[in-house]
């Protein structure tokens, strides 16, 4: 029964992720075909937005590839992808403004952003190692049960869950940080008139659908966490 619920939940998240990915692709494709009414380029948007928020010392660089746009606080750089760098489309402007939103968050020492940065180096490894520790712990537990449980397997599984929790926490914090960067981008876009009023809704859709991918990541991580907890179970055979 337990497993059945997990399969249903994982299935729902999978279908949802497909919908979100398709919607993102189509919104970015539409936004990349239409040039912004103001004629401004993504690079100029970055320069203006940074200046507006008194963020100094950030340079813009081209990062070849699709969706490679990102802000690197360590390098003090905003990387823009093939479809963003030097482009004047609605999608390019929205994405560039979003990355600027992260630079502004960093500049303002936004607590959630700083917390995300703190977790970032560990998130990848903890999401890979955590589940394995739980599985090894469960297997050991089953073996040790026959030979008198020492509680070692259960403890190892618990450590695995704590390790995985770091990844879950990362996704939990990432969602509001991403939404915040997008709302900053949208606000500045609207105020500065980088796109016309009737282009705003498409720009908003691009930002919104990109943000939804983080909601999917969080849901997927929550399902895994619940599954790991169920797999470990309560502590049995304790003497
Ligand atoms: Zn972002």
Strand order of the largest sheet: 1-3-2
Distance between the termini: 29 Å
**Tally of DSSP β-strands:** 3
Give the structural class.
mainly alpha
The number of distinct helices, counting runs of at least 4 residues, comes to 6
Residue share in helix: over 70%
Report the average pLDDT across residues: 92
Overall domain count: 1
What is the CA-based Rg, rounded? 22 Å
Strand content: under 5%
Stretches where pLDDT is under 50 for at least 5 consecutive residues are none
What's the order of the H and E elements?
Answer: HHEEEHHHH
**Distinct small-molecule ligands in the complex:** zinc ion
Largest pleated sheet: 3 strands, mixed
Shape: elongated
């Amino acid at each position: 029964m337990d497993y059945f619920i997990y399969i249903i939940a994982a299935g729902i998240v999978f279908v949802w992720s497909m919908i979100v990915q398709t919607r993102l692709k189509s919104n970015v494709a539409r936004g990349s075909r239409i040039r912004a009414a103001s004629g401004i380029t993504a690079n100029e948007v970055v320069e203006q937005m940074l200046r507006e928020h008194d963020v100094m010392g950030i340079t813009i660089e081209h990062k070849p590839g699709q969706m490679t746009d990102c802000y690197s606080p360590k390098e003090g750089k905003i990387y823009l992808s093939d479809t963003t760098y030097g482009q004047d489309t609605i999608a390019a402007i929205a994405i560039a403004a979003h990355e600027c939103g992260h630079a502004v968050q960093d500049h303002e020492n936004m607590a959630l952003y700083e917390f995300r940065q703190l977790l970032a180096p560990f998130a990848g490894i903890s999401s890979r190692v955590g589940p394995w520790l739980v599985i090894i712990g469960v297997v050991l537990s089953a073996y040790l049960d026959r030979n008198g449980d020492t509680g070692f397997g259960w403890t190892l599984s618990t450590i695995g869950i704590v390790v995985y929790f770091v990844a879950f926490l990362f996704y939990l914090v990432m969602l509001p940080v991403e939404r915040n960067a997008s709302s900053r981008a949208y606000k500045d876009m609207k105020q500065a008139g980088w796109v016309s009023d009737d282009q705003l809704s498409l720009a908003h859709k691009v930002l919104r659908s990109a943000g939804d991918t983080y909601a999917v990541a969080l849901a997927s991580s929550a399902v895994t966490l619940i599954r790991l907890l169920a797999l470990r179970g309560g502590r049995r055979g304790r003497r």
